[in-house]
User: Fold this.
Amino acid sequence: MDQIRITGGQPLHGTISISGAKNAALPLMAACLLSDKPLHLSNVPDLADIATMVELLENHGVTVEQKPAEDLGLELTLTADGTLNPTAPYDIVRKMRASVLVLGPLLARLGEAIVSLPGGCAIGTRPIDLHLSALEQMGAVIELKEGYVYAKAPEGLKGATIRFPFVSVGATENLLMAAAMADGTTILENAAREPEISDLADCLVSMGADIHGIGTECLVIKGISNFKEATYSVIPDRIEAGTYAVAAAITGGSLELTNMRSDHLGAVIEALTRAGVNCANGGASLSVSHPTGHCSGFDVVSQPYPGFPTDMQAQFMALMATADGASLITETIFENRFMHVPELARMSADITVHGGSAMVRGHGSLKGAEVMATDLRASVCLVLAALAAEGETVINRVYHLDRGYEQLEEKLRAVGAKIERVSD
Ligand code: EPZ
Assistant:
């Protein structure tokens, strides 16, 4: 398996262009199943998870044309106009939990779906009970058998008023797509408000869907039966942008992040600013600098959008490990999202975990070590820590990184990082 070797201590300086958002592109790709007309997507990040979604959609019978974009990412044309296969098999779904996002559109389009249960992952059991109970409220008949969800809607899905007991990004996305083609009006209450949800809703509207309340916790969807050809550009990846903002801060450098949306990073910019980092908001760009290289400890609690994103928790912990003073980092979304703590401890970080909170006692510098990546965001947290650490760090199992960061080594090397990938 590949390793990444980093020699730390270099302040990063320069410009990084942000790629399209993985967590927006995946549901947008699944939405093509609703329509028999082409869906043209641009600014799609060139990532392993995108390739897995292409593999899954082709398994369903979707025709996928793809070509590299001029600078970063891919352009995709997805057409689901033939006979569609309702089954999402375990050997693909187990590679990527987001595969479950084909459930809603398949059920709406075909009246049936047979989707492997995704199984858990490193950060939690991650059930899909909210997806299933909401689809049942729309008239679906659902049976769990031999690790698969067997869902049928022989009379078609019917509009319903659905109130989620707690915020779920994936459940909101699945139900948004299902409701777009249901008979009647669906109201989704306590819906997730992440920018990726609004991106999916805006794309569905460009395909002809009738959706109101976009960006709020109450979405009103009036189902339609025929969609039109559409062209849509994926929003920039707010988590990638936040990750590189931390890279500037943790190395005591200054980076200009371009092709991004500062308005999607409010809570992250606020936390960095409160920790003493200079953030100049340029709308489609963000300048981040931290000449002294040492932040002040600052507490954060992960929350649904617009709160501090759970996908930035690990990265922020790496920064706080080098800060002056203590920080309390509380994870409220996933039950096991501190897998990066023992690895950071190998780099001499001083962190104590109590249940869902981690007390980080920042001190001057981290020390390079051999460490292991466990999940996507824990992997990049170790990259950030390595960029600031004294000496060399070797990160194992870097395939996790390839799922969510396009051209990570190239982007970091271009702004001064001593980073290389070693294939064994
Ligand atoms: C999405 O996951 C993202 N993935 C995650 O990003 C992100 O961390 C998460 O939303 C929260 O923002 C994609 O968009 C592909 P949830 P999702 O449903 O939809 C529980 C990354 O690093 N839950 O909002 O799976 C669940 O276990 C990934 O890019 C249920 O109990 O997240 C979790 O504790 C990691 N039952 C919480 O709710 C359900 O039916 C939030 O999950 C659904 C969820």
